[in-house]
Amino acid sequence: MSDSSVSAAWPVARLHFWWSSRFRREGLLSTVALLPMAGLTMITSGLAPRLAERAGTRATMTTGIFLTGVGLALLATLVSVDGGYLAVLPGTALGVALLGALLSAGYRSAITPRLHGFPPDDAAAAREGVANAVEAAHGPSARALIRTAQESFVDGWQTACGRESS
C-alpha cells in the first residue's frame, strides 16, 4: 500500500469510528454511509501522484483542497441533517484540511531559514515537503538534509497546534 493510500485511509477510518459511536450506528451501516467518500479518496490518491508530476505539487494540493471545500460545501447544502453528513463536516474534513494547510505553512516557514548551505536543487525539493527532501538527499549532506526536514516537520506541527517551535 502506498504512503498516499495509507494517509488517505486514516481519516476515513477515524471518521468511521466517530460516526459509529456518535450516531450509535452499526458498523456495517456506518461503513456503507462512508463508502462514497472512501471510494473517491482511493481513486484520487492514485491519480494525485501522476497529476503532481504534470502540474506540480503546489498546484495539485491547491486544487485538491479547493475541490474538497467545494464538495463539502455541496454536502452541507444539499444533504439533509438526517443523513448525518452536516454534523460530520465541521469537525472532520474541514478540520483536516485546515490543519494540513497550517502544517504545510509551518513546515515551509521552519525549513526555509535552515536550508542555507545545501545544494540549491536539494533545498528547493526540501521546501516542498519531507518526502521530497528524503528523495533529494544525496551525497555528504544527505543526513543533514533529512534531519533538517524532520525537525522542520515537527516545528510545523507545533505551529499548526498553536505551540511555540524550538
Give a short summary of the structure:
Helices cover 78% and strands 0% of the residues. It has 166 residues and is an all-alpha fold.
Oligomer: single chain
Q: What's the total number of strands?
A: 0
Category by helix and strand content: mainly alpha
Instruction: Return residue spans where pLDDT drops below 50 for at least 5 consecutive residues.
Output: 1-6
Total individual domains? 2
Q: Can you tell me the overall shape?
A: elongated
Radius of gyration, CA atoms, in whole angstroms: 18 Å
Estimate percent helicity. over 70%
Distance between the termini: 34 Å
Q: How many strands, what sense, and barrel or not for the largest sheet?
A: none
Q: Beta-strand level of the residues, as a percent range?
A: under 5%
Mean of the pLDDT scores?
76
> Can you count the helices?
8
Order of helices and strands: HHHHHHHH
Helices and strands in order:
Elements: H1 3-22, H2 27-55, H3 57-78, H4 85-88, H5 93-111, H6 120-128, H7 130-136, H8 142-160
Helix pairs in contact: 1-2, 2-3, 5-8, 6-7, 7-8
What does this entry look like structurally?
There is one protein chain. The chain folds into 2 domains: 81 residues; 75 residues, no CATH class. Helix content is 78%, strand content 0%. It contains 8 helices and no strands. The chain is elongated. The two termini are 34 Å apart.
Give the key terms:
166 residues; mainly alpha; 2 domains; 8 helices; 78% helix; 0% strand; disordered N terminus
